[in-house]
Design goal:
alpha+beta, Hypothetical Protein Pfu-838710-001, 8-stranded antiparallel barrel, 11 strands, about 35% strand
């Protein structure tokens, strides 16, 4: 669900390609997230135009992603996040559908509030992890990879921007939908998740100034945890009640804007 003017505004941005993207990979970074109604994205894009460049691949500027998350039977990664552990992890397979490439990725949040990501090319397995995946997970996490299984799929569309000096990256995720292995589905198409990724906490950028103009404030938001809470009745899902209330507020805001 995207207001039609989003594509029109995106067409006005100066593009960069995958080769240049290497300069903005930021595998060790500070992440800051914002959530807002998708109806407010055109205002955000208008403010960003001229100060950020947009990733373009094969003449496309909005890209479909498919992520498959792994967790244990007792949801150790989900519980790390919702209970506020400073050090927490995610393990996922992410398919970049525009290029057809799939990566096994590990994201680690450190007690210094940094996000570190490692990844290898590897296809999503049908029956358990292969030897290469097991070795990769063992290298970076203190958990037995054999206890991990597929628990959630998440599809979304992403727009990626880079600062003019490539020290910062901004992503906007739209059309979020979830499914679990038994076929239950859920979606939050009215929501946009905006993430700023930069090398240091103190690094001031144009984005920090322009997002304030929209009166949008940072908030912790995990696509994995939210999808898991929407689809599973887990003991600690009530910890996310404030996030659920925020989603309801944004949905009401979206519905009012549509009816106006």
């Amino acid at each position: 669900m995207k207001p039609p003017e989003i594509k029109e505004i995106l067409d006005s941005f100066v593009p960069f390609d995958l080769d240049e993207m290497g300069n903005a990979r930021l595998m060790d970074r500070i992440d800051t997230k914002y959530v807002l109604s998708v109806r407010r994205i055109p205002d955000l894009l208008t403010l960003m135009d001229g100060q950020y460049r947009i990733l373009e691949i094969n003449s496309m500027r909005i890209f479909p992603y498919l992520t498959t998350y792994l967790d244990s039977d007792d949801y150790i990664f989900f519980n790390q996040h919702v209970t506020g552990k400073l050090e927490r992890n995610k393990v996922r397979y992410r398919k970049y559908e525009t290029t057809g490439k799939t990566f096994l990725e590990i994201k680690k949040r450190t007690n210094k509030y940094r996000t570190i990501k490692w990844r290898i090319r590897d296809n999503l397995p049908e029956n358990g992890l292969n030897d290469r995946a097991i070795e990769f997970i063992q290298e970076h996490l203190p958990y037995d990879p054999l206890v991990l299984g597929q628990v959630l799929k998440n599809s979304f569309s992403r727009i990626t921007f880079a600062g003019l000096d490539f020290t910062e990256r901004i992503t906007i995720d739209l059309n979020l939908s979830y499914s679990e292995p038994y076929g239950t589905v859920a979606g939050i198409p009215f929501l946009a998740v905006v993430e700023q990724k930069k090398k240091g906490m103190s690094l001031g950028t144009p984005f920090n100034t322009l997002i304030k103009k929209l009166s949008v404030h940072p908030t912790g938001f995990s696509k994995y945890c939210m999808g898991t809470a929407l689809l599973y009745d887990l003991p600690r899902k009530n910890i996310l009640k404030s996030k659920m209330l925020l989603i309801n507020k944004i949905e009401n805001e979206y519905n009012r804007s549509v009816s106006d």
